[in-house]
Amino acid sequence: MVGPAIGPVRRAFAPWNDPSAKPFIEFRNVTKRFGDFVAVKDLSLKIYEREFFALLGPSGCGKTTLMRMLGGFDEPTEGSILLEGKDLVGIPPYRRPTNMMFQSYALFPHMTVADNIAFGLKQAGMPKADIQSRVDEMLALVKLEKFARRKPHQLSGGQRQRVALARSLAKKPKVLLLDEPLGALDKKLREETQFELMDLQMNLGMTFLIVTHDQEEAMTVADRIAVMNNGVIVQVATPAEIYEQPNSRYVADFIGDINLIEGKVASAGEGGTRLACAATGATVETNQTLTAAIGDEAWFAIRPEKMRISRDAPADPAVNALAGEVWDIGYLGDVSIYHVRLPTGATVKATITNATRLVERPISWEDKVWLTWSRDAGVVLTR
Amino acid sequence: MAAEAKDRSGWLRWLLVAIPFAWLLIFFLIPFFNVLKLSFSTRARALPPYKPVFDFADGIAGFIAKLQQLTLANHLSLFTDPRYVEAYLSSLKIAAISTILILIVAYPIAYGMARAPREWRSMLVMMVILPFWTSFLIRVYAWIGILGNEGLLNGFLLWLGVIDQPITILTTDWAVYIGIVYSYLPFMILPLYATLEKMDETLLEAAADLGCPPIQAFWKITFPISLPGVVAGCFLVFIPITGEFVIPELLGGSGTKMIGKTLWYEFFNNRNWPLASAVAVVLLLILVVPIVLFQNAQKASEAK
Amino acid sequence: MRKGQSWFNTTSVALGFAFLYAPIVILVIYSFNDSKLVTVWGGFSTRWYVELLNDQAMLDAAWITLRLALLSATMATILGTLAAITMVRFGRFLGRSLFSGMIYAPLVMPDVITGLSLLLLFVSIDIDRGFWTVTLAHTTLTMCFVAVVVQSRLVVFDRSLEEAALDLGCPPFKTFFVITLPLILPAVVAGWMLAFTLSLDDLVIASFTTGPGATTLPMKIFSQVKFGVTPEINAISTILITIVAIGVIAASLFNKRREVERQKAERLAMQG
């Protein structure tokens, strides 16, 4: 099942850029209504084989509904859902080649770990001996061999999570659906498990679809992320693209920390964009090619870590620079966050990596400072 | 979000609904209409002891003719004959007073249980339920031996010297109240306990921290929070007490008027089925308001 | 402040339980009274139990009552469980509020009304009254209690367990039997026990709906009690109380043991 050259394959894995690639899962104009509430609005999405795909968004954005429709627990009101080109609509969950790992794990409390893992195999009518060997294989995979005879309540949270994973993988589903799979774990265990999940997905060569509201989790595990809001997909892209080239203020703001500076387009076109930001009195220039008319409303989005903070004025204080006063400093250990108050009253965040052991801050409270950035540090957004 | 998966084995599922639904329709709802119909009939020396008896063999003309025999006389007599009016009013009075008495007795017990050490609580709940599982009739019967003129209570009071001759308790309304409070106590304790046990004790600490003395904290915090339990408990006891038969029959005297007793006597002793039906119909009309309120309270807690 | 409060609590609980239990204890004690006069202690004796064993009418009534309770509790458990599933799982449907009304109303409906209306039903459809009509009547009443008990368990039931079973290829009907039913079983059993004791206990509805040859134990006791307190009634009451107490205590001890085992298991899990 596992190819010999997974590493390089993984690096070059980008079927979504290949126009001839056939989608493995396809949502076509899917709408789901619960009474008056529209959970998913005319949504189309293609997911490719072996992809680790994340649906990311705040609660109530429709991501869970989208996944449940793929699992067969909810039926779309309109549209179709295809798996390998075949429409799944109308097929009950117990006849779908997908398996789900539930947020609550949904381990059967009256069955042992081994019986839980064997449950799906028994339903499929697999011979007893095969079930036994498959269960052993799954237990080994999640390193729970010693716990086969235990009941779920005799396990720790992390162990339960692994049983749930083993159970949903046992039937070798075509797609594994993970509904907030790590939500119940503490931060440290969650981070470890994220990497385990990635390795597992690569080694098994399976398609994983994960639903999460944790942007770090999505960025860590996924090949691509769909950011959802109010039942629609706002952006589908790789984690790096989502972070560095958000297509909207919503995505920019949802993922990570960002400064949004409002302005009007002063010039736009091939190779450069200029933004006049009246509120901060600054002019922003980027290398970005923007299609917008002069005078359009736009926002300059720049991450705090891409700002330079200094007490000295830059060579050209009129472009890509802001002057202000240090208002607050948050020391986080690895970095420090500076809140710089501009003369207009707005606050801009900038982070400094604490590269040396801190004895005395080079820049302190109430210092007059300059914030500067390069032409490719930020992005101009028009929505 | 948790919408039903589209049901495919539809007819089977609807069959599952249909069985209990049909059962309750046939054995619970429809019989009430039958009672209603009978309450308009007149007594007869026959089997069954009322007329008219509808029969499909009568044809439409016969049906109409029999329809004209129906009468409001039974209902009217309930409102004109002071015996019945008195019985209804007395039932409601006894039910209301008992409900208040039960609440007063049950509240401290439920409160004490809810504040007992955690490991004791399930045991205490079991001890409240235990008498409830033992026969109602037997528990009422037990009081006859205690409250009688030569009963244990009188014997005890005589021995103490509090009284010098037995006081009559049995066959008075006092005995009925004691019996009712005793029998219905668990129905009030349990819902009260359920709401009090769920209450966050830090609320009282917060109240104390904000300068509220304990007694005031009880009336301003604890009691309002326990109101759903109070309401549930009151309905749970008030409605059945109004129609209670066994307790007034065994503990009360001839002076104890309760409508359950009246119904029983009209039915079994006088064999006046139509009048008994009319008694039931009017009792039901009186209880409809509390029953509907009770159901709404149930539905509200179900929604939670 | 806490000390004072807990003194008050302890006293009220103690007095409350004394009130609840004293009559029962007295009843049990006097069942061993040698004297025929209930209020005079004539020494310890089991003669009333012996007398009871020779009272064929009483034994017949007990036997009828037991069969009746077993049968009606079983039917009520099946119907009540179905009704609970209907109420919790079927969302809104035509007649839903009528349905839940019919479930809750019998819980508080005075027995005399229920009894009378069922009797009139049996008379109007002209079936012979006796064992079976009482069984039907008890089933109707007690199924509502079962429905409420099972419903309260189903409401907190984690639906994702059923979805997980469906997801792993188990069809809905089978899912009910392998997942749902085993997990709600304690509530179903509790419902059965409640239905059983309610049936064992009922006087009024049975009096209305019964016919010749089907005198239940409560009816028998009632007819004797009306003539005053007799030690024999104390004896049979003691037997009934003992049976129920043993049943309830055994059930709760069983639950308690399971709870202790569960806690032990959880501690084990914590250690890894």
The ordered H/E elements of chain A are HEEEHEEEHHHEHEHEEHHEEEEEEEEEE
Helix and strand pattern of chain C: HHHHHHHHHHH
The helicity of chain C comes to over 70%
Strand order of the largest sheet of chain A: 6-7-8-3-9-10
- What is CATH's topology name of the largest domain in chain A? Rossmann fold
N- to C-terminal distance of chain A: 44 Å
Reading off the top of the CATH hierarchy, the class of the domain at 62-234 in chain C is best stated as Mainly Alpha
| Overall radius of gyration of chain C | 23 Å
Largest sheet of chain C: none
Number of helical elements of chain C: 11
Tally of strands of chain C: 0
Look at the helices and sheets of chain C and give the structural class.
mainly alpha
Q: What oligomeric state do the depicted chains represent?
A: heterotrimer
Task: Spell out the blueprint of helices and strands.
The complex is a heterotrimer of chains A (about 375), B (about 300) and C (about 270).
Chain A: H1 6-11, E1 25-34, E2 37-47, E3 52-56, H2 63-71, E4 78-83, E5 86-87, E6 98-101, H3 113-123, H4 128-141, H5 157-169, E7 175-179, H6 187-204, E8 207-212, H7 215-221, E9 224-229, E10 232-237, H8 239-244, H9 249-254, E11 259-267, E12 273-277, E13 282-286, E14 297-302, E15 308-310, E16 321-331, E17 335-341, E18 347-353, E19 368-372, E20 379-381
Parallel strand pairs in A: 3-8, 3-9, 6-7, 7-8
Antiparallel strand pairs in A: 1-2, 1-4, 4-5, 9-10, 11-12, 11-14, 12-13, 14-20, 15-19, 16-17, 16-19, 17-18
Helix pairs in contact in A: 3-4, 3-5
Chain B: H1 10-39, E1 42-43, E2 50-51, H2 59-67, H3 73-80, H4 82-114, H5 118-133, H6 136-147, H7 152-160, H8 173-198, H9 202-209, H10 214-242, H11 246-251, H12 259-269, H13 273-303
Antiparallel strand pairs in B: 1-2
Helix pairs in contact in B: 1-13, 3-4, 4-8, 4-10, 5-8, 6-8, 8-10, 9-10, 10-13, 12-13
Chain C: H1 2-30, H2 47-53, H3 56-89, H4 96-108, H5 111-124, H6 131-155, H7 159-167, H8 172-201, H9 204-209, H10 217-225, H11 231-271
Helix pairs in contact in C: 2-11, 3-6, 3-8, 3-10, 4-6, 6-8, 7-8
